[in-house]
Amino acid sequence: MRIFFVFHFGNFLIWADFEKPCMKETKTFFILVLLILGVSCSSEKKGPPRMTAKQTKKDAKPKSTHPGKVLYMQFCMACHMENGEGVPSLYPPLTQTEYVLGDKKRLIETVLHGMEGPIEVKGEKYNNIMAKLDYLRDEQIADILTYVRSNFGNNAEAVTVSDVRTVRAAGAK
Ligand code: HEC
Predict the structure, then answer these.
(1) N or C end of the chain, less CB within 10 A?
(2) What's the 130 CA to ligand 1 centre distance in angstroms?
(3) Residues 76, 78, 80, 83: is their CA dihedral positive or negative?
């Protein structure tokens, strides 16, 4: 009698050929198979979970929202709009404007002290009032301005808490 086994586990191909099978050999063989099965199952559990292409794409997006985004929605969005495009002749845009990308001090001052009077942004004139938002904490202003400077087509250096602290201290003489 001849017994021939071929097993295929993932990357392993296991085969055994018994000319004269005796109980002892067969037993050892099955124990071996169970061991390999156990090892391959437990190592599968440890590895990264299998994902479909769709899931991988979804998971690749950052899960956490920028803290500045939440604050922007709360304190700036009403006038400057969700995507920073503003409202023509009423609220200027925050998309690659001189104020947003330029001098950080002037940008921080805009939030701390507000702004009023005639200005020109991207070739368009505005003469309106932005109330000061000095009740926001240094950290909140830094988060908002960092968010603004890295979104809406902007790509400028972050605004730090100490940047805001310095400007605030200079303003409160
Ligand atoms: C109540 C409406 C309102 C809110 C809220 C508001 N702004 Fe403004 N903002 C304005 C107006 C109006 C101007 C233009 C003022 C003028 O005409 O002199 C302006 C001007 C600006 C400017 C300079 C011009 C430009 O567009 O580059 C920046 C930068 C700015 N705002 C940022 C912010 C940020 C950041 C927040 C939230 C922390 C905010 N604003 C909240 C109304 C607002």
Answers:
(1) C
(2) 5
(3) positive
Shared-domain flag, residues 89 and 134? yes
Q: Dump pLDDT digits (tens) for 29-88.
A: 555 444 555 555 454 445 555 555 555 555 565 568 999 999 999 999 999 999 999 999
Residues 67 and 124 in one domain: yes
Residue 51 C-alpha to ligand 1 middle, in angstroms?
A: 44
Phi, psi of 90 (to 5 degrees): -115, -60
The verdict on the CB of residue 80 being under 6 Å from ligand 1 is yes
Together in a domain, 18 and 71: no
30 vs 157: CA distance, rounded Å: 64
Query: Are both 90 and 128 inside the same structural domain?
Result: yes
Answering whether pTM is above 0.85, one says no
For 11, the token pair is: 């990357």
Which domain covers residue 80, as residue numbers?
63-171
